[in-house]
Specification:
CATH class: Alpha Beta
CATH architecture: Roll
Strand content: 35-45%
Oligomer: single chain
Low-confidence stretches: none
Mean pLDDT: 94
Number of helices: 4
Radius of gyration: 15 Å
């Protein structure tokens, strides 16, 4: 499977909440660079991240645009996150099933036919603004 197809399958699995399907596409030495905080290393840390996400959020990624590089080692992806904030996440504002719509982007690196790095960026202050106002409209 080519890198673009691997990344598309990764995000399709995300939208299907098929966490095992996502994990199968990751390299054992996966590096997960998060928007806020330190990098998480390895499959077990990624599994914990997915469990945490499932507890706190219900998200679907839409309007996805994939941009692979020429040699197939990297793929950038732009998308819009449509989500529901289900359970309070740490010291973030209290969750009350607020809806949010937030543009985001990710950069993925591949080696040995697996995703070896996922770096995700989004506007946290905008997410907090939407949640604090009771959620996005529409």
């Amino acid at each position: 499977m080519q890198s673009l197809e691997i990344v598309k399958q990764y995000y399709a699995s995300f939208n299907q909440k098929n966490w095992d399907g996502m994990l199968q596409l990751l390299h054992t030495d996966i590096r997960h660079d998060v928007n806020q905080g330190s990098a998480r290393l390895g499959l077990e840390q990624y599994r914990k991240f997915l469990q945490h996400m499932e507890l706190c959020y219900d998200e679907q990624l839409k309007e996805m645009v994939f941009m692979p590089n020429a040699d197939g080692t990297r793929v950038a992806c732009e998308f819009v996150v449509h989500g529901i904030y289900k359970h309070t996440d740490g010291d973030l504002p209290a969750a009350n099933n607020q809806r949010y719509v937030l543009p985001a982007g990710a950069f993925l690196e591949l080696k040995e036919g697996k995703i070896s790095r996922v770096t995700t960026y989004y506007n946290l202050p905008e997410w907090i603004r939407q949640i604090s106002l009771g959620g996005a409209r529409g």
